[in-house]
Amino acid sequence: MVKTRPGFTLVELIIGLSVFALLMGTIFFTFGQEINLWDRLVSSVEGEQISTMVISKITNDIKSADQIMPGSDKNKLLLKIGADTVEYSLYKDKIRRKKNSSSSYLTDVGDLGTLVFSYLGNNLVKIKTDNLSSTVFSRN
Amino acid sequence: MIKKGFTLIEVLIAALLFLAATIGFAYLLKYGAASVAKASELNQAAYNIESKMEEIRAMNFYHLPSLNGATFAKGAGKIKVISVLADLTQVSLELKWDPTRLPLKLITLRSKY
After folding, report:
1. Cβ contact (<8 Å) for A45 and B36?
2. B16 assigned to some structural domain
3. What ipTM, to 2 d.p.?
4. d(Cα B35, Cα B22) in Å, to the nearest integer?
5. In chain B, what is the straight-line distance between the N-terminal and C-terminal CA atoms, in Å?
6. Tell me, what's the pLDDT at A27?
């Protein structure tokens, strides 16, 4: 009687498992690294988009302002637009646009941690956020 | 004796093919990430050149010719000022933001009035 042995031998099983482990290890390692990189990139791009939106909003207001008001400093920009006073500042970790006495917020807590204004003379204002900076000229 | 199923070699080849395909996808992801990073650099460069132009807008018309040949952005940007008419000047900015790509250009006309 011929004895048949269905299935794998121990050696085959060990080789198979080793190959499988090596394969999975490589895949998880590579993808893990890629996903970390991707996550970092996505959060930095999101931050940049928020900065772009904030800078564009402030730029529009500076362009339509009659005057950059005295009292503006590093942390606060005061603009006179028609009969209104508009103030930009970082208030409780959110960027606040205060028109006369009503406030609105451009960002939420944790979106942006820096909003610095510098005044370069000749009606030039430099706006700096976490990841972007822009210089704007106020014509009036 | 009939042997059903795959041989070890076949399984190994299949595993290798699978690995190659997966690594291909991983490279695709990496390439995508590099493109996004490049786009972000371009965005920064656009802000940089636009900011310089705003600074030039704030300048007196008569001081513009003195800017010709000046550089900005740590030498990566060049300013060219051409007098078109007595009361009209063309200001061009060129920013080489990436050694392998075309430079960013911004051209404007400034009138004396």
Report:
1. yes
2. yes
3. 0.75
4. 20
5. 99
6. 84
Tens of each residue's pLDDT in chain A, 140 residues: 556 667 778 888 898 899 889 888 988 888 888 888 888 888 888 999 999 999 999 999 999 999 899 999 999 999 999 999 999 999 999 999 999 999 999 999 988 889 999 998 888 999 999 989 999 998 76
Q: Is residue B18 part of a domain?
A: yes
pLDDT band at B12 (very low <50, low <70, confident <90, very high): confident
A-chain CB neighbours of B40 within 8 Å are 44-45, 48
Q: What DSSP state is assigned to residue A4?
A: P
CB contact under 8 A, B43 and A48: yes
Closest alpha carbon within chain A to B51: A135
Does residue B51 belong to any structural domain of this protein?
yes
Nearest CA among A46, B81, A68, A126 for reference residue A77: A68
Instruction: Decide if B33 touches A, using CB distance below 8 A.
Output: yes
Domain residue ranges in chain A: 51-137
Between A20, A34, A137, which is nearest B54 by CB?
A137
**Number of compact structural domains in chain B:** 1
Mutation pick from B1, B54, B72 vs chain A, by most beta carbons of A within 10 Å, is B54
DSSP characters over B52-100: HHHHHHTS-GGGGGGGTT-EETTTTEEEEEEEEETTEEEEEEEE---TT
B44 touches A: beta carbon within 8 Å: yes
Nearest Cβ partner for A136 among B18, B23, B54: B54
Computed over every residue of chain A, the mean pLDDT equals: 89
Domain boundaries, position B106: 8-111
Whether residue A76 contacts residue A106, with contact meaning beta carbons closer than 8 Å, is answered with no
Is B3 within the bounds of a domain?
no
Query: How many Cβ pairs closer than 8 A exist between chain A and B?
Result: 68
